[in-house]
Design brief:
Helix 2 links the parallel strand 2 and strand 3. The chain is globular. It has a four-stranded parallel sheet, sandwiched between helices. The chain contains four helices and four strands, in the order E-H-E-H-E-H-E-H. The protein is of the alpha/beta class.
């Protein structure tokens, strides 16, 4: 990844919104934590939209590496808005609680955004 001399890599906020996805959440978080992007430049925020399953148990092994917010159920838009309010990043990356990222996802997207400042949104294709 090319960054101009003296320019720090942007802080990327990975936002994960979940509702009753305890069975998928660990794999999603592992994929975010396994990024080849510097860990100190990647914050991971999980907003639990009032899950009634074992999401609170599934998140426990990750609490030293992610910020977890449990809120009353308000629907997807409410949870995304809360996640955005919690984010401190220069860039925002959305990770669905039932998805996984390839290890270079964040670095590839950041590289493109830095190289093309006129671009405001980057997304990837689906791989099954």
């Amino acid at each position: 990844m090319s960054v101009a001399p003296g320019q720090a890599l942007p802080l990327v906020s990975c936002l994960v919104v979940t509702y009753n996805y305890a069975r998928f959440l660990p794999a999603a978080l592992e994929s975010a934590l396994a990024q080849d992007y510097p860990a100190e430049r990647l914050e991971i925020v999980v907003v639990d939209d009032g899950s009634t399953d074992d999401t609170d148990v599934a998140i426990r092994p990750f609490l030293d590496r992610v910020r977890y917010v449990h809120k009353e159920n308000g629907g997807l838009n409410s949870a995304i808005n809360r996640a955005l309010a919690e984010a401190h990043g220069d860039l925002i990356a959305l990770l669905s609680a039932d998805d996984e990222w390839p290890p270079d996802r964040v670095s590839r997207h950041v590289e493109l955004l830095l190289a093309r400042p006129e671009v405001g949104l980057v997304y990837g294709d689906l791989e099954v």
